[in-house]
């Protein structure tokens, strides 16, 4: 395409320093337009109204759950607080009381637990302790089945009695049948 004689005359008469300023000004103007379009595009992506806050789960302070059978309490579960999830409750500082056939309490504590109210099961985690008569048991996890009355310690445990220490893993307490089974790594030490 031929250049008009007027433009060719102007380009020939404009000194090179002015021509570079002209290109610099054009580049700055295009940069400003691009930045404006970018900011406007970002502004359109943000919602006009603030987003609704995420739905919070119901929180209960100091809940107590009791299961009775034949007019007697089988077990009682308490916690400092409970947060309701879709299928289970997350308990903070749970405390479970199981009762033996004589009515004696078997307390179970943990840092946290997940309780499924439909299955009547609880998974205790953290520093789990169980006290029964002269025995004090410690573990990192305990699984409680309220329907069967069984307590399962799947990981390692340490149990101390008056003069006996027992270590092992995979312990099951079948409370209704008065049985204790240790399936792995059993070691019993007499402290006399």
Q: Layout of SSEs?
A:
Blueprint: H1 5-13, H2 16-45, E1 59-61, E2 64-69, E3 72-78, E4 81-84, E5 89-92, E6 95-99, E7 105-109, E8 112-116, E9 121-132, E10 135-145, E11 150-160, E12 164-174, E13 179-190
Antiparallel strand pairs: 1-4, 2-3, 3-6, 4-5, 5-8, 6-7, 7-9, 8-9, 9-10, 10-11, 11-12, 12-13
Write down the oligomeric state.
single chain
Number of helices: 2
Please write the string of helix (H) and strand (E) elements.
HHEEEEEEEEEEEEE
Helix content estimate:
10-25%
Structural class label: alpha+beta
Which whole number gives the mean pLDDT? Answer: 79
Give me the CATH superfamily of the largest domain.
Lipopolysaccharide (LPS) transport protein A like domain
Q: Quickly give the CATH architecture of the largest domain.
A: Sandwich
- The beta-strand count equals 13
Strand content: over 45%
How is the CATH topology of the largest domain named?
lipopolysaccharide transport protein A fold
Globally, the shape reads elongated
Biggest sheet overview: 13 strands, antiparallel
Uncertain runs: 45-50
Distance between the termini: 110 Å
